[in-house]
Amino acid sequence: MAATRTPLMAGNWKMNLNHQEAVVLVQKLAWTLSDKKHDFAKVEVVVVPPFTDLRSVQTLVDGDRLSIRYGAQDVSVHESGAYTGEISAGMLAKLGCSYVVVGHSERREHHDESDETVSAKAHRALDAGMTPIVCVGEGLEIRQAGEQVAHCVAQVAGSLAGFSAEQVAGLVVAYEPVWAIGTGEVATPDDAQEVCAAVRAHVRETHGDAAADGVRVLYGGSVKAANVAGIMAETDVDGCLVGGASLQADEFGGICRFYDMPVL
Ligand SMILES: O=C[C@H](O)COP(=O)(O)O
């Protein structure tokens, strides 16, 4: 983690928690962090609930003037129209979303999303004033073949197609090795650093120093309060995209306060 970039902890709830449960969790998280006098300027805290929870989260965040930010798990490539079941970037922006996750491995796997689709979604998010969190990552076979860097860099190249250097500087890329998602199989800090550094080096090559120094690269995959400090000690890891552990306020609160945690 470099001092020039604000660390970002984003909790991706996936398809968990209804809108009432969402309010309870965000309230608990806010209390937990406020108890510890969390400085949100020091570590940015984001929750990424299902679409159906967003309006309730917005009402709570606005009403209680919380510093927690929130985002959506996906967005349509289309602006509006006859696309049943789709949610547009404009709708999400209107709900006060700051971030949109695009190209999560579960979307790439279960919905066949290509880098081209991911790029189109990232453009929609950015055009609507939100920050895309662009996910990349390799499956177990690619990891075993030692091709994780080439694979992830290619995904980044495809997913960031058409973005200017200035735009890339404000983006977030999340490296999530698929074999470490929800499995308890956390990548080592060295594994995380290897790919995060390669992503940044690629951005430096294609978009220049300002973009490479600005883009935040997160790690995701079985992150917990107990292992977050070691991961965050790596130079090119600027935060975490957290799944399961973000469903518990205490655990996610601990992750957000990684600097209080022991390095294992
Ligand atoms: O978006 C989050 C990631 O898929 C990681 O999920 P996990 O923390 O449950 O392994």
UniProtKB/TrEMBL annotation:
Iron in keyword set: no
Enzyme class per UniProt: isomerase
GO terms for cellular component: cytosol
List of catalytic residues: H104 (electrophile), E176 (proton acceptor)
Sorted UniProt keywords: Cytoplasm, Gluconeogenesis, Glycolysis, Isomerase
Domain of life of the organism encoding this protein: Bacteria
Reactions performed catalytically: D-glyceraldehyde 3-phosphate = dihydroxyacetone phosphate
Keyword Ribonucleoprotein: no
Pathway stated in the Swiss-Prot or TrEMBL entry: Carbohydrate biosynthesis; gluconeogenesis; Carbohydrate degradation; glycolysis; D-glyceraldehyde 3-phosphate from glycerone phosphate: step 1/1
Any GO MF annotation of the entry: triose-phosphate isomerase activity
Function in brief: Involved in the gluconeogenesis. Catalyzes stereospecifically the conversion of dihydroxyacetone phosphate (DHAP) to D-glyceraldehyde-3-phosphate (G3P).
Enzyme Commission number(s): 5.3.1.1
Annotated source species: Nocardioides flavescens
Protein name listed in UniProt: Triosephosphate isomerase
Compartments, as annotated in UniProt: Cytoplasm
InterPro entries in the cross-refs: Aldolase_TIM, TIM_sf, TrioseP_Isoase_bac/euk, Triosephosphate_isomerase, Triosephosphate_isomerase_AS
Binding-site positions, substrate: N12, W13, K14, G182, S222, G243, G244
Pfam families: TIM (PF00121)
Annotated GO biological process: gluconeogenesis; glyceraldehyde-3-phosphate biosynthetic process; glycerol catabolic process; glycolytic process
Chief localization: cytoplasm
Assembly with partners or alone: Homodimer.
